[in-house]
Amino acid sequence: MATIELYLEGSYLKECSAKIVSIQDRFVVFDQTIFYPGAVGSLVTGGSLNKVMKPIIY
Fold this sequence. Notes:
Elements: E1 4-5, E2 20-24, E3 27-30, E4 32-33
């Protein structure tokens, strides 16, 4: 499953909800994102995770 790149449709988005698809070492993969990935000569966006829900483990 590829991450949906919301920044391609709305470059001024400031927030979105996303589901965690996987966690790999110290990286978190989401089902969608508004963050533009870094590339040579381009601006990189950044942000933070807020309101992260703790999983319920039975």
